Amino acid sequence: MAEHVNRYGQPVGEALPLWSARAFPRRITLTGCFCRLEPLSVARHADALYAAYADAPDGRDWTYMFVGPFRDKDEYRAYLTAVEQQQDTQCYVVIDTRTDNAVGTFSLMRVDVNNGVIEVGSVAFSSALKRTPLATEAHFLLMGYVFEQLHYRRYEWKCDSLNAPSRRAALRLGFTFEGVFRQAVIYKGRTRDTAWFSLLDTEWPQRKLDFLDWLAQDNFDAEGKQNQSLAAIRQSRLKEGS
Fold first, then answer.
1. Is 125 within 8 Å of 139 (Cβ atoms)?
2. Which of 56, 78, 95, 137 is least surrounded by Cβ atoms within 10 Å, i.e. has the fewest?
3. What is the pTM of this model?
4. Which positions ≥6 away from 94 have C-beta within 8 Å?
């Protein structure tokens, strides 16, 4: 990064004279090849989401979430109702376009419109969604919305530092690990060190190309298995650029 100095000769950050506050995420639908993202509607989505999560053999998917597991559909519906009513968070539902079923949710949260910083969180992907092209495309669609339509500068991912699957997912999706905030949170009666990851607007164009290559039809065989991993595609592009 080029060094900028003020009139006193002190190093300072790059000036942003044209910067303006960004818009808050809207209740819009984003459509891809494998999935569709819809703004949460308890009336439309609650039953299908509960059924998708109920397919899991136990409650381990909720261990690192601030909520859950839920005792029954009514308890889950009450939680979703509270989420739908939140004014500072925008929750999106992932719809499998083949079946038109709701299979997971995630949210844009901790929205800082003045500084152009936003976090993706509360990622609750069912067994029908995890480790599928739908899951990757869902993240791709939301990233594209944040960077290309809302024009935010920084996209954050945070998780319990002990949540190894979440940490792997962040790195696979192209986030950069920034460190651990020790004893940052208390939840479910226990302490949490929080791992921080970020993706910047200047990094998005290359990440976008990686996603497009991975999601391309010719990257999957007849059984739907990937020919190249997202990480391999990213490394190959980095070598080409070196």
1. no
2. 78
3. 0.95
4. 35, 36, 37, 102, 103, 104, 105, 106, 125, 129, 134, 135, 138
